[in-house]
Structures are given as C-alpha cells and as structure tokens.
From TrEMBL:
Family assignment from sequence similarity: Belongs to the bacterial solute-binding protein 5 family.
Domain Solute-binding protein family: 80-448
Gene Ontology terms: cellular component: ATP-binding cassette (ABC) transporter complex; outer membrane-bounded periplasmic space
Origin: domain of life: Bacteria
Pfam family, one: SBP_bac_5
Location within or outside the cell: Periplasm
Main location: periplasm
Signal peptide range: 1-24
Molecular-function annotations in GO: peptide transmembrane transporter activity
Keyword line: Signal
Any single biological process term in GO: peptide transport
Protein name: Peptide/nickel transport system substrate-binding protein
Length: 532
C-alpha cells in the first residue's frame, strides 16, 4: 500500500553533471531534478501554507523534530523516526513529551540549531509569540499544548493539558518543519532558511523555483542531487507533453488523471507510472453563516443531490473511493465501514430517491420548478478543482439550484475561503497525516482557521477530545466512526470522494518510495538519484 503524495519524497534526478564510477544500482552523486509545478504557490512558508503546492518544492529545505521513515510505504506509529530530535520520551502521565535534540546541526546561514528554535517555532504556531504568521491553518493542532519549555540548548518539552498520543504523528507531518528563531516569518515567505538537504536559491512567481544541495547537511553523504528545479506550468496538457518529450524527469505528484495516464503510457512506454490514493477528499464547503446556506434544509438538499458514483466514473474511470471524512479502508486506518457509511442520508445507492427528498427540502425553503436558487460555485483554478466543480453544478440543477462557476487563483483561494468570502465552494482537503486529530481539529473545531464552513458543534468537539485520548486503536475506531457519521449528517463539509491519481517518472529515476496514507510527508528528495 502506497501513496503518491509522497512519491516525490524520494524522487528523481535529471541531468548528471559529473562522471561517476559507482557500481550498477549504487546511488550516484550529482544531477538536478527537473519537475514541473502545477501552479504558483502564494509564498514559500510551509507553516502558513494550506496546500501541498508549498510542501512539494519546499519540504526539502527543512527538517522536523521527527518524521515518518521515508523508505517504508505506509505511515504508522512504528515508522516514526528521530530527525532534529535524537530521541523522545513521555512523562507526567503522558502529559509531557520531551525531546533530546541533535547537536552540531546548522541553519543554512551557518547559525547553530538549538532548543530555542523549536520553542520559537511552536510558540509561533500557537499564537504565543510577538511575531505572527499571516495565515495559521494548523493552530488547532496544538490546542492541548500548554507551553513549550527548554532545558539547555538541546532539550525541549511539550507540556500538555491532557494526554494526546497523536501529537507525535502531527509533529512528523510535512507541515511541521522547525523554523529558525533569527529569521522573521515575513522573510521565511520569500527566502526560507532551514536545516534540510537543500538550500533555497530563488522563487520567481509563475515561472520557477530552484533549490541547491546543502553541502553541510548533517546527514553525511546526502543528498545525492546537486539541486532541484521546478518549472511552473499551470496547463496540465502542456506540462505532460513536456514530460513525454523528456524535458522533465517527473510529473508533479498526483497530477495525472486516469485518462491522461493512458496517453502518457502510449507515448512514453518506458516511463514508470503509478496510481494511488492521495489522502485528499473532494468536498463541498458552504458558508453556513450567510444566506441562503444558513438554512440547514438547503445544506441537506445539496448533500442529498450528490451522485458520488458519477463523479468517480467520469473523473477516475471508477478508480476513486467513496467515504466520509477519514481516508477509506484499506489504505486508511480510520475509514468508516461500508455498511455504516451507507446509513448516512445521501450515501444510499438510490440517487433518484435522494434527489426527491432534496427537492422537498428545497420547496420547504421556498424554491421549486418556478423559482431556482442562483449561487456562485467558487473553486481553485486547477483542473483537480474545476473538473469536479463542473459536475457538481450539473448535478445541482436537479434540485432547483443554478450554479455559476467562480474560478479563483491559488494565491487568493485559501485567504478567500478562510475569511468566508464565498457562498458555496468545491474544495479539496488534504490530510497531512492519517489521524483523526489532524482532520477533526483542523477542519471541524470551532474557530479553527481551516474550518471554512463555520461548522461549530460543541457536543461533537467534546467527542473529539474523548477519541483523542484513547490509546487503544480498537476502542478508538468506533468513536472515530461515530464522529465521522455525525459530521456527514450535520452537512459540516459534504465529502464527495477520495481521489486516486497518477504520477510518472523517467526510467533512470531511482530511490523512490511511495507512501499510502500521508499526503504531505515525503518531499525531502535526499535519497533520490539517477542512473543515467
């Protein structure tokens, strides 16, 4: 079981710049990875990003305290590995997590890494520092952290309000790099400084992103690459043609649809291509605090109107998964069983009956054959968003809703939905780890910056806390399923499908591991090489 999001994690090289005498199959030094990027990120700051368009090019600049083993296909607690931390331990009845830090690590500008940097990073994320992040989509991850304390330069502790076993999983996410104290959040947006295998060179908006090898990387001998270059190409067809022509070593991760995959294989038969779950749900976001979607009947009607199988058949030729908030089984650990899922209104197989129920709700709200509801359906200007948005608009016609597509550029999309400046949106939600705490607190807790729909149910939030403290997976799963079912019944953020997508790379690319359930955790590139 593997996931394509992490495909670039150990990805590729492209142009060999020095001769080598290594044995066949042995990694070679040198080369520059050439990859196209699907769009232009708003900035270079991972802590402020809400899209893996930031993680893909910039994760290699940084290190985490801990990280999932990049050579093992599926993330799990057993695959957590130390990184900037050498070790960790729990104390105080599992309410204190202490890390012993690695010594001798330097930031790319030569300054030493210490415990102060860890404290600065997480104080920043928790909103406790004088400096502020412009956007802070994952602040809710740390609601249970009282404070960060240091003991000397190489020990740091997270003091918790209550036990939260998932904290380690979230610290291992690609969204949790450690930032330097001495560089401002504003500078990290334009010229990030890290401790990772690659150093930032330049970011030209709508043109390119370039990284170069860190010769002083604390993992001796790594990385193998001399650098990484991303060319920003927003037209997917143009980018794929360039890959087929050999201009790029690898496609942008999880950017290839099933039909396009067939085209690539016919034109570049030697390319390696994989299709895997992405741990990204395509969903509907509704602004529940403003008319007309402050009316629960209209929100429920929208959910009942969905023909999920049609989305899967049209966009993926049947190769996608229908589920709730959590990644469906078997790739996902926490996905609802199918029989439980089908008890949720709108998930049943009789689409026509669901839509008849939806029409009754719309008529109750004052709409019908002679009075349609006109809405703008906002979505991000990427094919992965636009294509399902068009299908959604077509399906909503069946229940007296006339949708108009409102396309928003990437740099504006997340600020727009975070400030609730939309009526109804077609959204993609990437889960950076396969753990309910990440998904529930980030997307559904009251006041979370990434709770785009303003959903707030204090009773459900109490259940978030109950499942969060349960250390026995077999006991935790039913709690998670009940919460997930309730979120769907409340129309908090109707899930349409969980995508599968393809990624291709040239035959000389070596050192790739594809993870099954971690969208954002593997774009480090430090072990990748090319046999060319």
């Amino acid at each position: 079981m593997r996931s394509v999001w992490a495909l670039a994690a150990m990805a590729a090289l492209s142009v060999l710049t020095a001769s080598t005498t290594t044995l066949a199959g042995e990694p070679k030094q040198g080369g520059v990875l050439r990859m196209y990027h699907r769009d232009s990120p708003a900035n270079a700051s991972i802590l402020e990003g809400a899209t893996y368009s930031v993680n893909v090019p910039f994760m290699g600049v940084f290190n985490n305290l801990v990280i999932y083993d990049q050579h093992i296909a599926q993330n799990s607690p057993e695959t957590l590995r130390p990184e900037l931390a050498e070790s960790w331990s729990w104390g105080n009845d599992n309410k204190k997590l202490t890390f012993k830090l690695r010594q001798g690590v330097k930031w790319h500008d030569g300054k030493p890494f210490t415990s102060a940097d860890v404290k600065c990073t997480f104080d920043l994320l928790m909103g406790k520092s004088q400096q502020k992040l412009r956007q802070n989509p994952r602040k809710a991850w740390y609601n249970e952290v009282n404070e960060i304390t240091t003991s000397g330069d190489f020990e740091v502790s997270f003091d918790l309000k209550r036990p939260q076993p998932s904290l380690l999983a979230m610290l291992a996410s690609g969204y949790t790099p450690v930032y330097p104290c001495h560089v401002s959040p504003a500078d990290m947006r334009t010229h990030p400084v890290g401790t990772g295998p690659f150093k930032f060179v330049e970011f030209k908006a709508n043109e390119s992103i370039k990284l170069t090898r860190n010769p002083d990387y604390w993992k001796k001998g790594l990385p193998y690459l001399d650098g990484i270059e991303y060319t920003i190409i927003t037209n997917r067809s143009t980018a794929i043609l360039a890959f087929v022509a050999g201009k790029f070593d690898m496609t942008f991760p999880t950017h290839i649809t099933i039909p396009l995959l067939k085209d690539i294989k016919s034109q570049a038969p030697n390319a390696t291509c994989v299709v895997e779950p992405t741990n990204v749900s395509t969903n509907i976001i509704v602004n529940s605090t403003s008319a007309p979607f402050d009316n629960i009947d209209i929100r429920r009607a929208v959910a009942l109107a969905l023909d999920r199988k049609a989305f899967v058949d049209i966009l993926f030729e049947g190769q996608a998964d229908i589920g709730g908030t959590m990644l469906p089984q078997p790739q996902g650990v926490w996905g609802m069983p199918k029989d439980k899922l089908e008890t949720i209104p709108g998930y049943g197989r009789d689409v026509n009956a669901n839509r008849e129920d939806a029409k009754k709700l719309m008529q109750k709200a004052g709409y019908g054959p002679d009075k349609h509801l006109a809405v703008k359906v906002s979505t991000r200007n990427l094919a992965e968003y636009r294509d399902p948005a068009v299908i959604l608009i077509d399906q909503l016609k069946s229940i007296y809703i006339d949708g108009e597509l409102d396309v928003v550029e990437t740099a504006n999309w997340f600020p727009k939905v975070a400030r609730k400046d939309y009526m109804l949106g077609l959204n993609l939600t990437g889960n950076s780890v396969d753990d309910p705490d990440q998904s529930f607190y980030e997307n559904y807790s009251c006041g979370s910056e990434r709770n785009y729909t303003n959903y707030c149910n204090k009773e459900i939030e109490k259940l978030f806390d109950v499942q969060s403290q349960e250390t026995d997976t077999s006991k935790r799963k039913p709690l998670v399923w009940d919460i997930d079912k309730k979120l769907q019944e409340d129309v908090a953020r109707p899930i349409i499908f969980h995508a599968r997508a393809g990624t291709c790379w040239q035959p000389y690319v070596k050192g790739i591991t594809i993870m099954s359930n971690s969208s954002y955790n593997g774009f480090r590139y430090e072990d990748a090489w090319l046999d060319k």
